[in-house]
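User: Hello, can you help with two protein structures?

Assistant: Certainly.
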Amino acid sequence: MQTEYIKLDPEHMDKAALKKGALLLRQGEVVAFPTETVYGLGANALDPAGVDKIFLAKGRPGDNPLIVHVAHPDQLKPLVTEISSGAYALMERFWPGPLTLIFPKSTLVPSNVTGGLNTVALRMPGHPVALALLQEAGVPVAAPSANLSGKPSPTVGEHVWTDLMGKIPLILDGGETQYGVESTVLDLTTTPPMILRPGGVTLEEIQEVIGEVRQDPALKANQPPRSPGMKYTHYAPEAEVLIMEGSEQEITSLIVNHYQRLVKTGQKIALLVSEETARELEHQLVPDYLEILGPRKNLSLVAHRLFSALRHADFHGVDLILIEAFSDQGLGAAVMNRMRKAAGNKVLKS
């Protein structure tokens, strides 16, 4: 299959490109497009044959649910059987934006969208290209991240091209994504509501709107999560990933000591660390690849850079990635969740 690659300026969008993408979606094809979180690979959510093409292109297991994207909250009504007052309050506060809400599904939603579950995950993305494409298509669009299954999620169009060239008909490149990690997934079918996947909207922000919210115990207990996009191994580069966890005072020594042991084995090693740790390491070692994720307290920047940094390390052909752990508070919950998934929960503590 030939893949067409079109760059779009979000402020002055090419209407012909949007019409082309929308037509492909209505015809049962898949299209990659930017959201404010990561790039998505979309198909008409009401077309089971089109949805099957998402799983085929990504190599994604068919029992792994998808998130349905809408252009307006009113599009929810035919897709769900119940919308609570809390759901309306959350949509009012966070949509468009990086919050996915889980509802009881209607019979209109195909079972391959929901992985056979009786619930459906929905969100309204905040990226202007995504919204314009959804509005032009006029259909709800099921879309996981636009990468090969298990690989780091794409935050620029080139990542999608690397993974899916020749597998899909169209990539719409709207530039670098804002958040760099996927949306928060909140299950509204439980009491109290439960976060199944941390993301761009924090636990604390949600609690400000609806009160008590729990987190899925599987997020910290190394059990299979129930969220779309979290059931299987995810976010993993080709290189092995090891998380380096310690206090601010201990982390540099931990990295130096472990690095010095590993380098003797002949492995090529990458370091993905905070700005502060990079300064302390400057005169102590020279890794095969170094990327600074950002200051320890700027977790939005760390989240923004994480997936790209994992891909960059692979590009440099390293065997092992040593990555510094960050605070798991606020947006750090999403950062550390993705980091643990990429590392297969392999952590070295001081």
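That covers the first. Now for the second protein you mentioned:
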Amino acid sequence: MNIKRVMIVGTMIVAMSFGGTTWGKPAAAAAAAPVAKWSTSTNVADKDELLEALNQSSDEDLYEALYDGKSLHDIAVENGGNIDSVIHLQVAQLTQQLDARLASGSITLEQYTAQKAELSELVTQSVLTSFD
């Protein structure tokens, strides 16, 4: 198995998940899905926010750029996008997911606090990572 392809597809799934998988669903629905599902029909507004922040015209353009090994930062810089908006959007959506997990009791307050403290740094590192 080609590790570059695995990493690219994994990054692509993370990036596209902000456009409509489990982020906007209740924690029970998220827990019931054993794997991330690719969806373009739900949470279209979130997907558009990501594409807008990256200044991308379509999912296909984003997919191709990620497949070519570019980071989200590279994509934003090349297209005149706003990388701070990408980071803010991803942190906000991950925070919502953590909030839902805490509310449902699937994580403890200590786990919530620790994970939330790491969000900004993890998202920033992820956004800057390319797979050349």
